[in-house]
Each structure stands twice: as C-alpha cells, then as structure tokens.
Amino acid sequence: MTDAYDEPAGIAPRGTVLVAAGRGETAGAYVRFARRIAADGYRVRVLPDVTADLGASFAAAEKLLVDDALPGPKVIAGSDTGALFGLALAARKAPSLDALVVAGLPVARPGGVNLLGWEAEVEARTACPNHQRLLGEGAATPGTLFAAPIPIVLIGHAGNVSLPTLGLHGDADTISPLDEARPHYPGTLVTITGGRHDVLNDVSHRTVAATVVLFLERLRLGADLPVIATIA
Description:
Helix content: 25-40%
Strand content: 15-25%
Strand order of the largest sheet: 1-3-2-4-5-6-7
Shape: globular
Radius of gyration: 16 Å
Largest sheet: 7 strands, mixed
Low-confidence stretches: none
C-alpha cells in the first residue's frame, strides 16, 4: 500500500516525489520527510520496503509515474535499497521519470556488517531521538537491514543513469561508509556532516529536506538544473 501526502489546500502542486523505502522499513518511517516535502507544494507517495516484493514495487512505481493525476516533474527519492531501486528504474527508462534523489546508497561488503542487537542497529541508522523512537515503535523490522541481502537485480545500475540525480550520504555512516559508497553515486553528491545511514531521517533532517527541495525547484526550471541561489 502506498501512503499519500498532498500539497496544502489552495496551493498548486509543484511536482511529485515517490519515496522508496529501504530494507525492512515501513512507509511510516518517512512520515516526517513526506510531510515536509508536501508542505513545500509537492505531492508525495511512499512505497514501503521495495525489496519485499520487487515485482510489485516496480509495477506500483511505474503506475504512479504515468498517473496523469500526479503532476510533473516526477522524482524517485530512495534510501538504502530504495536508492538502488530508483537507479534501477532510471536504467530501465521508466516512463515519465524525470530525476532521482539517492540517499544512503548501500554497498556490498564482504561478510556484511557485524552489529549485534536492535539497539546497535538503531544507533547505526540514526542519531535523531525522534526517529529512533519511531523505529522502535515498528517503522523498521529489527535485523532486516543486515540479514536481508541486496537483490542482484538492483545492483550495478549507476553507470546507466543519465537523469538529473542528487545524492545524499552521511559521513558517519557505518553501514555504508562514505568512501566506499562515493564512487557509486551518479550526479551530484552532498555529504552530511555527522550523518548516519538513515540520512533522510537523521539529526540534520531539516537541512537534508531543504537540500532536496532546492534540487526539486531547480529541476522545475529544467533538466540542466539552473542555479537559483549563489553566494556573492
């Protein structure tokens, strides 16, 4: 099921953002992010853990992308395997997809990440106490982030992406270390100081959301992302 967040009443919608959740995450993990983006005039639709049923997730995303009731530009914003999902959609030339926001891009590491227990997993995900509480209340399935493999069909698509792409990655991400993830980001990469793996929902979530909105506003002006603000 897709959760929906619309622009405030009386405001013309400025575009559509489809949020693709990562391993073990419910749509509820992105309520704060979705509401903030919607408050700036964008329609937001959130897909829960896209790896739970990849075929259904691709079908749902592609249906939303061609839905005439949803205004363009249309952007996929994905975290963790949701980021890989967005890259895969772009590589397969999904109709009406205009750009990507790729966050917390996961990298395959030999032996995986050895973190023991739910408390350690939450700490690795985010330093934000509100998001930690939300995760503890069921917004993510304990252990899935480390136990669930990354589907092969989602791997290796970054080099096939030509759409405008904004990358967001925390420089304190221990699940997918920045130095390992950096080469896999197409487009522009913004690093978040002190950011952990759930960078869309971490302590700097306001700055991250503002960075996303600036990207969306530039996209509205053209695929070459004209500059809106400069430091004099």
